[in-house]
Write a structure and sequence with these properties.
Layout: H1 23-49, E1 60-65, E2 68-73, E3 75-77, E4 81-88, E5 94-100, H2 101-106, E6 107-113, E7 118-122, E8 125-131, E9 138-146, E10 150-158, E11 161-170
Parallel strand pairs: 3-11
Antiparallel strand pairs: 1-2, 2-4, 4-9, 5-8, 5-10, 6-9, 7-8, 10-11
């Protein structure tokens, strides 16, 4: 300790502590901490439910068509692998799936199982024709990877019936 300095000794509080700390500031800090913990807990609940992508109860949305059903991610992750499944319940010699261009602007298609017999460009969309063999149901799996994050809305047409599908890609 250098000469000329003088320490001030805080008074002893009624609870026996000898602290000189502004209590109001500490209480504000604790309140902010509690709010942050509630926010973190809320994010954990959203993740467990599947609203942050990658699995969970709400991670997929089911879109119904006449004679078909598509399972599309509700929330996807940027540069994360995901898949879309289209199940055809009615027998037909072939099934056509048409997906509008906004989908392909946001996603990269990594694989289509089974491969389409015919893949053609339509006006503002891509149309794929899948031949069938054997009794229904038939299923097509499309593996995809989100290349950009943000809100995406596109149209899917299955055997002539069109539905608008929206999904969120998180960073």
């Amino acid at each position: 300790m250098s000469q000329g300095t003088r320490l001030t000794i805080p008074e002893i509080r009624p609870d026996g502590l000898q602290l000189d700390e502004p209590r109001a500031r500490q209480r504000r800090y604790w309140r902010i901490q509690r709010i942050a913990w509630w926010c973190f807990g809320g994010m954990m609940v959203l993740a467990v439910l599947g609203l942050t992508g990658g699995g969970g109860v709400f991670s997929k949305q089911t879109v119904s068509f006449a004679g078909a059903r598509a399972e599309v991610p509700r929330v996807s992750r940027w540069e994360g692998a995901d898949d879309m499944t289209i199940a055809f319940g009615t027998p037909a010699p072939s099934h056509e799936v048409r997906i509008s261009q906004p989908f392909f602007d946001r996603f990269q298609v990594e694989r289509i199982q089974p491969e389409p017999e015919r893949n053609r460009l339509a006006e503002g969309a891509q149309a794929m024709t899948f031949p069938t063999g054997g009794p229904a149901p038939h299923e097509v799996k499309i593996g995809l990877r989100a290349m950009h994050f943000g809100w995406t809305s596109f149209e899917m047409t299955v055997n002539g019936e069109t539905r608008r599908i929206s999904l969120l890609v998180l960073p």
